Amino acid sequence: MSPAPASPRLLVADQVAGAVYVLNLPDGRETGRVEGRHLAEHAGFLALPGGRTAFVDDLAGELVVLDPYGPDAGRPLTAATAPVAVPAEHLAADPAGRLLAVTTGLGRNREAWSDLLTAVDLGAPGGPRSVRVRTRAGEPGVTVLAGTGEDALVVLRHREPGSLTAYRHADLMSAAPACPPAAPAAELPLADDDGHGDAHDPVSGRLFAATGSGVRRARRDGAGLVAEEPLPWAGEGRGYYLRLDPARRTLWSCVRGGPADPGRWPEWTNDAWWHSLEHDTTGRLPLGPGLVFRLAVSARRAAYARVHPDGDELVLVATDSDSPAVAARLPLPAMDGAPRPGGTPWDGVQRRAVAASPGSSLVAVTRGGHGEIHLIDADAAPGTSPLVTTLKVPTPLNDGGHLALISPGDGAHGDPVGR
Questions:
Q1: Which domains does the chain have, with CATH numbers?
Q2: At a CB cut-off of 8 Å and minimum separation 6, what does 219 contact?
């Protein structure tokens, strides 16, 4: 008799309290916990092959690889660690999940000050190995493009001036001690200095960078990069977040419009934006006013959490057709300490994190400050309640916490950028 298939698992990070919980789904049973770990929320969780997940501990200055199903098979929950430079801004891996890169950002500082880049080889002889080098101060995005053998390229997406700067991962790993300057293998100028949001499609090898004028595209050409025609936002506004649905090879973002003043965030407009890499088609549809930022992709839905003084909601967009459409709008319980008109929606206020797996219908969304996670069946039949359960963790999830939802064999590592 074959064993029953493993259930999905939810990683819940309370980056303020310093804990990561592993919950079995849908019952919410805790199967593991790592305490004293402060996840770098901006860099997020990175899916790796074999159901593993990586993140950066922004206090300890370590990359941490978790094996959520490991304890079930007698393996440790923490599969590997490696020292990295912090504060971590972005995290990415090559398609094989062996070669990683971590960029640094502002942290608790108002101006860019760190130019450190960390290259990691999880499969190095003797165990994981990491090397730190200097590049250019800022808040760079990062992707790691596959090559032959050790010939992967680490590509930084810089602002002011905008550029895509490529380094050979092997050259970074052979750098001398004491954080020497790294010599780029290639550089491709960008027309925009406001890049924010990165994606990488391992099937085509293309990388994508969200900018004010559209999504910039580039592909590898040997050790260099070749620009391709950008993708338009198909209307007013721009996206600040970009991710790949690896199952359908579709790029997703949220296009924000409205006043530039952050205090007027309730007036911001938000549209779901998508681009099919298979069919070369682009579209968008309105989600509603307020704050919408990150999104998650389930088996048949793209999930957006929308925050607004008139009420928060989880917006589910159907992705299993050539014409995505809003499938459901689900009200969410209010948060104490939620953003208020006149103040910024991200400083000293509670937020929501959202997570899903391309191999499951489940979507999880946090209620920041309350230690709660609402578990939703995104494929619930009309007329039935989509709420599966409300999970609780021992800490409040201030700032919204951070989530990753894992389903065995879901292929989530086909999106090799931290979320």
A1: 9-414 (2.130.10.10)
A2: 204, 205, 206, 207, 225, 226, 228
